[in-house]
Amino acid sequence: MNNDKSYSDVEFAQLCNDKVGNVVVFKRVLRKYGLIGNRVQLTGKHAPLFLEAKSLHIDKHMNWMDAFITVISPLEEEHHDVDDQDVLSVLHEILNVLQRIEQKL
Questions:
Q1: pLDDT tens by residue, 2-52
Q2: Taking Cα atoms as reference points, which of 48, 21, 27 lies closest to residue 10?
Q3: CB < 8 Å & 24+ apart, contacts of 59-65
Q4: How far is residue 14's CA from residue 60's CA, in Å, rounded to a whole number?
């Protein structure tokens, strides 16, 4: 499985040995949590997430939506943590530049 390769919904369903409808719902949940944009294809890196949700669906008898949310919601928190760190880093850089400018004045 190539992590960089983009898959159509049908190809991704075949890759994960599941139904296209479940893949479509998976993409909706990923979009809801801001992990993929509109009109973005799934890649190989999404397959383990889907397969983990599929395992929860089968083994723990969770419905698909709950399984997807259980797998994806921790990633959203990580995604926001990284974004916050990036913002803080940029703000710190701006503060340093402003302090240098102030020293020159």
A1: 667 889 999 999 999 999 999 999 999 998 888 888 888 999 999 999 999
A2: 21
A3: 64/22, 64/25, 65/25, 65/29
A4: 23
What 3-state class would DSSP assign to 62? Answer: coil
The residue among 73 and 68 whose pLDDT is bigger is 68
- Mapped onto helix, strand or coil, the DSSP state of residue 39 is coil
Q: Which tokens belong to 54?
A: 């599929």
Can you give the pTM of this predicted structure?
0.69
Look at residue 82 in the predicted model and tell me its pLDDT.
52
Nearest CA to 52 out of 67, 33, 66 is that of: 67
State residue 64 phi and psi, 5-degree precision. Answer: -60, -45
Residue type, 105: L
